[in-house]
TrEMBL record:
PANTHER family: UPF0410 PROTEIN YMGE. InterPro entries: Transgly_assoc. It comes from Trichococcus patagoniensis. This is Putative membrane protein YeaQ/YmgE (Transglycosylase-associated protein family). Keywords: Cell membrane, Membrane, Transmembrane, Transmembrane helix.
Length: 82
């Protein structure tokens, strides 16, 4: 059950980051989940573990990390299209 909860929270974090930036995450819901997981790792690595935690994710640094990740991915995808 914990794994399912982590998938849900990771997907929501990835979707929130994409909505905040107004950019779609490549891969749909799977991309949102991956962005949430990798963004959480990135955020906690850069900013530390602080704020409320849900499903093993620290919400504030995970959301910031997912936003950074989506920005980087969108820049890479933009340069590859040219």
């Amino acid at each position: 059950m914990d794994f399912l909860w982590s998938l849900i929270v990771g997907g929501v974090l990835g979707a929130l980051a994409g909505a905040f930036l107004g950019k779609d995450v490549p891969g749909g819901i799977i991309g949102n989940i991956i962005a949430g997981f990798v963004g959480s790792w990135l955020g906690v690595t850069l900013f530390g573990a602080w704020g409320p935690a849900i499903g093993g994710f620290y919400i504030a640094p995970a959301l910031i990390g997912a936003i950074i990740l989506i920005l980087i991915l969108s820049l890479i995808m933009k340069t590859m299209r040219k």
